[in-house]
Write a structure and sequence with these properties.
Layout lengths: L10 H13 L8 E2 L1 H8 L3 H13 L3 E4 L3 E4 L4 H25 L2 H15 L7 H21 L4 H25 L3 H19 L3 H13 L1 H12 L3
Length: about 230
């Protein structure tokens, strides 16, 4: 008799694992997601898989094929540029509002997050290095805009971030393992911090928009190298 595990994966478990695999490129854009392969990889049945796939369709990471299953959503340079343009414009607005509305506690949090990101040191495991830097990087950007005090705008920001994740991962792998690229990111973050501490909303908004657009050329090259566009 086959041993039964103590806990079978839930649809939410499967969703998180499948989403992570898609973001990290384990499945290529437009690759057909065969149910037999998914069942084996995620150790689950058709029900949880269909629930997870339906959720990922809503997030535009998967497409449904009428009566023929599912595919990973395509990627394109046009989508890359549109998503990043939207993110840059929104982030520029949010940092402006945060400077106008944020208090001393907000300012102190931004300062602390900048320091924490700058203290990331290299570790032997590449995935751990990427995860550590990106977690602290996201925490810094979250702190920078948190002072805006506008939940609907922050929710729109989160939705755009989700749409950008596959593209971001390509950029991250190119950036986190380059001393030169990391040093440039640190200079950009310090420049942003300086404008925040000076309460210069116009300068911060411009710098933020420029900062958010820097991954686009790198990501475009990676997409072309992978043959995904």
């Amino acid at each position: 008799m086959t041993a039964i595990s103590d806990r079978s994966p839930t649809a939410l478990d499967v969703y998180h694992r499948l989403k992570a695999d898609i973001i990290r490129g384990f499945y290529a854009p437009q690759e057909k997601l065969l149910m037999s392969r998914l069942k084996a990889r995620y150790d689950t049945g058709v029900g949880p898989l269909r629930e997870a796939l339906t959720r990922l369709i809503g997030e535009r990471l998967v497409t449904g094929i009428s009566q023929r299953g599912y595919r990973v959503a395509p990627m394109s340079i046009a989508e890359l540029e549109a998503i990043y343009d939207a993110r840059a414009q929104l982030e520029g607005l949010l940092i402006r509002l945060a400077i106008e509305r944020g208090d001393d506690e907000w300012e102190a949090t931004v300062l602390a997050r900048t320091h924490t990101l700058a203290k990331v040191t290299r570790v032997q495991d590449a995935d751990e290095m990427l995860e550590r830097w990106d977690t602290r990087h996201q925490a810094l950007h979250d702190a920078m805009v948190a002072g805006c005090g506008c939940l609907p705008l922050l929710q729109s920001r989160a939705a755009l971030f989700d749409q950008a994740q596959r593209y971001r991962h390509l950029w991250l792998r190119q950036t986190v393992f380059s001393e030169q690229a990391l040093a440039e990111k640190q200079r950009e973050h310090q420049a942003l911090l300086d404008t925040i501490l000076a309460r210069d909303a116009s300068a911060a908004s411009l710098l933020m928009r420029e900062h958010l657009m820097t991954p686009v050329p790198i990501t475009r090259e990676r997409l072309q190298e992978q043959g995904w566009v």
